[in-house]
Predict the structure.
Amino acid sequence: MKVAAVIVAAGSGQRAGGEKPKQYQVIGNKPVLRRTIEAFLSHPAIGHVQVVIGKGQEQDFATATAGLNLPPPVQGGDSRQSSCRIGIEACTEFGPDLVLIHDAARPFVSQELISIVANALSATEAVVPGLAVADTIKRAKAGVIDETLNRESLFFIQTPQGFHFSKIKAAHAALAAQGENALTDDAAVAEKAGMKVHVVPGEARNRKLTTAADITAADRELKQMDMAGRPDIRMGQGIDFHVFDKGNSLWLCGIEIPHTHKLKGHSDADVALHALTDAILGTIGEGDIGIHFPPSDPQWKNARSSIFVAKAMQLLNAKGGIIANADITILAEAPKISPHIPAMKAALAPMLHVTADRIAIKATTTEKMGAIGRKEGMAAMASVTVRLPL
Ligand code: CTP
Ligand code: MG
């Protein structure tokens, strides 16, 4: 059985608001849509994943799906129903027997639910996940109860909804030809075509992200899960010194700063990044910068020190570790550091895979005491906290 998945992501997310439509907003460091797509791409039964996007969403789609192996998206319509029809038609060339249609706005769909819906299609012509209604449901007119409904027969319907490909394709085409365009799920299309739609148990986690509060809560939940999975908290420190030499700029925290001197060193002599590299290595007991990048090795001559940080991050990430925060203190009589701090944080954040609020950069003079006070060179100290899985 060839199974295709259609993911409808062509909405504009009016109820959620925000700078981008909700499916392109980031929850727990990934766009909503990417999570949804990955759930289907990683399912062994799904052979083809067709995404339907809105007009003008091409760039957001490209950013959200970078590196994923997907066919080009198709452009949806002005209702969910028409977006689904277009997505189904785009699967024709793949020749699927079955199709699962899913909302991009439900990123928490489980592998089990995808299996349950796909498997149920061997015995039925249409399947939807549904949740039982716990509250009493009443119909009201002008604020006055009109009728109490029997909740035993009511369900909250979710996606993925599963169908036999040629039947749902024909049902969509027939309805569109009749001018019907506003049905809010594909089961309604199947019902109108006379199909028998079966309900299988849905999942509370598989809710549709609808409002801004839904997105904030999902983001927090994912971040908390991520933190809970890395309970081993460790701290590392690093310190480094470099002397000044003839020159007119120096590298510090990954940026070049004009100055009356440069810093002398084998690499670009970025004293802060060297201290930072040692601090990261210190969290995982991986020696120091000199072990990984011997100064005697000519290949590191004039190297950008960001490669040293990248190596330390690679070792940390290989253990499943992430940076919790980095705190850097620069000791220098000159140049004045504070005007450069925002640019330094902007350079460091991507190196450490964190937001700038997890980075501190401070500077102090030594009140003209000692070698640093005499402007013979400068020093930097770094402390880093990391979180690792057990
Ligand atoms: N959808 C679509 N094409 C449309 C409308 C909606 O592909 N013309 C998709 C949405 O992107 C979403 C799913 O259908 O993944 C469910 O729709 P909904 O939650 O209503 O999303 P939006 O229409 O984007 O949100 P809103 O109704 O708040 O504007
Ligand atoms: Mg909508």
Notes: The chain has twelve helices and 19 strands. The chain has two domains: 3-227, 231-388. The domain at 231-388 is CATH 3.30.1330.50 (60s Ribosomal Protein L30; Chain: A;). Residues 212-228 form the longest helix (17 residues).
